[in-house]
């Protein structure tokens, strides 16, 4: 019985292996999912085959019919085989609820006549590990809420932060249509403690006040107020097609520009003007100036260009006065609302002088300093006093704060003149009574303006402190020791009164001293040492020696002394130059000793004229060439020649040497060092071209570097030394000429002294 059981088990394994091979072949055709189901159902099929071999074998059809008619026996068979099978049949959870479920059709071995059908719950699980229960699917809300507590890798990158933001935006609270304001201080995650409730979430930040740059309001122009809409649209359409304009340069809208605009109005009702710096930066101000000076209306503006309309009644109003409009531009149009900044600026500049109408920045208009008087009669710089133990100089922090303050102030004056600035200085002193800082702009386009000369002139006339000076602005501070005119008057009156009191005291002291007579013994003052009498005696005794010399003799002596001093200086410089030349020559000799030029081979190949002409034309057509630099001929150049000769027979060497003798010397050196044949030397537009032929019997050398030539570093050092020696010799020659000229002048002075009878320096 035991042996029969073993036989049954062996047959069982053999049939299992056979079915496994067939099922795996079928699974390759129907896909991976069908393969898994076939492997699971194969167990039951193997058990049926087992009993069909060892029982009395009836016909196959009757066995299948009996087994299909008696499902209980088939089930028992499955259960009996399940004890020995390591892959048990897993009951399906839907088998009880669905008894009439559709059966699965299983492929059978070739000896089974007919299909085998099994229920889904009778399929076997071939995996060794037990099946794990599947997790329930998460809803969209749970996934969104999980983004708050889930771990994110790489939270410092931009991608990770954007992912966090997207996950927060997908929260249920953020998906509402209406905005909801959440108080982050009262928000909590299921905690009832007051401390946890007051804690803010990591992504919640305090609200910051963001000040966005307000868009500039569109300015309603005079043309939009006066002209009809249809006429304005027609004029703008014509203006957009205009291609001829009047160029407005840095000086602004001058009389020449006005005349050109009016001449353009004679043939066309529109005139186009194109602005340069600085008016192109403020086209609103440019429009006001053009309308003010021409009397027209600006109908179209584009970038740095604008188009002016002459008006309907141009013939009547073209000669009307513009001076009335200048006052309106300075003090504002009666219907226009002026800002506080402009009103205060106009009040500060009132009475200082005429305004500059062509001002390229926003109002208030500054004072035109060029129209102020050049000379003010009786002008004197203001008196200055500072308190005792005070420091009139500015510290660095004070200077910085004053510059920051001057940045926001309006411009007070516009200047285009370098000298004669007394009128401007007088106006600045008047301005300093109300303001500590005077801000002066320099006019654009005025020729020969020197801001340094302007600043020095104003400092001398006003005594102020210069805060800033560049090609655009000059800013002057009145200083800590500045005294206003009223205070200066009081101080001067007080000083006059004190001086008068001192004089009264001195006069009374003299009267008291004259009333008292003191007798002095003359024997006590008998010595003359250090007295006036001693000085007069010395003058009477030795004064003739000094008077004997004339003025021209003194000039000759002074000139001679200067020449001797300059001669000593030049000789010292010449000695230093000669020492430098000697040291450089010593180093150059040491380098030249390491360079042993090669000699030309006596047995060289001979080229005919036709061959030379052929090689010359080939070299002229070559694009590749070898450039010879300042180092001259060294081992790297010879190696480059060999590299060129590897691919072609002719090489072209370009040198930038100026003299033709140097070029010939270089060509012969290359011919001797490389072993090639010099074809020709050609003149180029820049430099010369040396053409070398490698020869008919050329063989590529095994060693490229020549031991008798200098290296690249040594060649550069040699070139620098040669250049240095040349420049030192040039300066030494100049020193020698200067010394020769000085000695000749000194000899002439000595001869003139000898003629005048002065032989003092000749004896020395």
Automatic annotation (TrEMBL):
State the Gene3D superfamilies in the record: YhbY-like
Q: Which residues cross the membrane?
A: none
Q: Where is the composition biased (Basic and acidic residues)?
A: 135-155
Subcellular localization, as worded in the UniProt entry:
Plastid, Chloroplast
Question: Low complexity compositional bias: what residue ranges?
Answer: 64-78, 175-192
Which keywords describe this protein according to UniProt? Chloroplast, Coiled coil, mRNA processing, mRNA splicing, Plastid, Repeat, Ribonucleoprotein, RNA-binding, Transit peptide
Annotated GO MF terms: mRNA binding
Per the record, the domain of life is: Eukaryota
Q: Which SMART domains match?
A: CRS1_YhbY
Residue spans making up a coiled coil are 546-580
Chief location of this protein within or outside the cell: plastid
Do the record's keywords include Plastid?
yes
Where would I find the CRM domain in this sequence? Answer: 225-321, 392-489, 605-705
* Ranges for region Disordered: 64-155, 169-195
**Would you tell me the Gene Ontology cellular component terms?**
chloroplast; ribonucleoprotein complex
Give GO BP annotations, semicolon-separated.
Group II intron splicing; mRNA processing
Protein name from the UniProt record: CRM domain-containing protein
